[in-house]
Amino acid sequence: MSTVSAYAATSATEPLTKTTIERRDPGPSDVAIDIKFAGICHSDIHTAKSEWGVPNYPLVVGHEIAGVVSAVGSEVTKYKVGDHVGVGCMVNSCGQCSSCKAGLENYCKRGATFTYNAVDRDGTITQGGYSQAIVVDENFVLRIPDSLPLDKAAPLLCAGITLFSPLRHWKASKDTRLAVIGLGGLGHMGVKLGAAMGAEVSVLSQSLKKMEDGLRLGAKHYYATSDRGTFKQLRSSFDLILNTVSANLKLDDYVSLLDVDGTLVELGIPEHPMQIGAFPLALARRSLSGSNIGGIPETQEMLDFCAEHDVTPEIEVIEADYVNEAYERVLASDVRYRFVIDISTL
Ligand code: NAP
Ligand code: ZN
């Protein structure tokens, strides 16, 4: 066991505070990682604030982890000391079910072991990336290509794969009229990845404040959803809509923007359930779906795609003691476009 510094949530209302946690010694198939950077995902905030149920406090969140291998177990074959690696939202899964066998560990039938607030194989509660080190089974470690700097690679491990996977599943291409709702951490990766796959990207944001950024990141069009005229103008005009908003939306309005046979994919996971009328779905054979991160093989494919196509997030690197302010800014939609904690400041 080793003791490492970390930032932990202790209740739904208290700020995160500095603490220490224990990491296990690497077992035969484990990789020990010195964490260099950790992204701040809105899921960290939902969890820390008990919006998805009360977690096991004190809890270290963070599932956008980039670092360097510091030790490997005796049976590890894929990684060696010094390699640049990442860890995303999962650290294990059953490995036996049809999802796991298909490389869809994110849809493990027995439930994947998530990077924080999950019961690990040894019965302890998993603790995430706002910490100096982590020990993970080699099958849940990703290789970060040399051309990707570690700070920019970190957000790809959640925000990147969460957008890459549905874009691939729904076959985004030059023939796809794609809309991304919300220009935050996830949304801006949707714009970049969608554009890299050739889609005609529109951003649906609350206001036009970030329009210049959206267009620079690869969007062709940018609309304000605070303007009711937007919904009239864009009726039936998209093939695929990716909703990345962390709060409830009036889904009827957005589903109506899909053309016949179009799909709206719910990626945001707000605290409260949302409603949808049957009419907007039925009237144009539209689909409502959802998607949760991506499997390990697809996450590696995404990292390699980002290296090849030079797709990286826009980040603001922060010192660890800025984390609570960063949370406030994310909640105020004032993130441009992902906060990344420099773990050397922890
Ligand atoms: P984020 O950086 O806070 O981005 C969310 C964006 O949604 C904001 O920047 C804002 O964009 C828009 N928004 C926020 N509040 C809104 C409101 N009340 N009405 C309309 N729009 C609003 O968050 P994130 O890290 O991208 O995460 C977004 C959501 O995805 C969270 O719920 C998170 O838990 C979830 N998530 C899901 C997965 C998955 O696998 N499915 C993975 C990671 C995260 P504008 O300012 O442009 O309007
Ligand atoms: Zn996340």
Automatic annotation (TrEMBL):
Residues 11-341 form the Enoyl reductase (ER) domain. InterPro entries: ADH-like_C (IPR013149), ADH-like_N (IPR013154), ADH_Zn_CS (IPR002328), CAD-like (IPR047109), ER (IPR020843), GroES-like_sf (IPR011032), NAD(P)-bd_dom_sf (IPR036291). Its cofactor is Zn(2+). SMART domains: PKS_ER (SM00829). Its EC number is 1.1.1.2. GO terms for molecular function: alcohol dehydrogenase (NADP+) activity; zinc ion binding. It catalyses: a primary alcohol + NADP(+) = an aldehyde + NADPH + H(+). CDD domains: CAD1. Keywords: Metal-binding, Oxidoreductase, Zinc. Belongs to the zinc-containing alcohol dehydrogenase family. This is NADP-dependent alcohol dehydrogenase C. It comes from Mycobacterium rhizamassiliense.
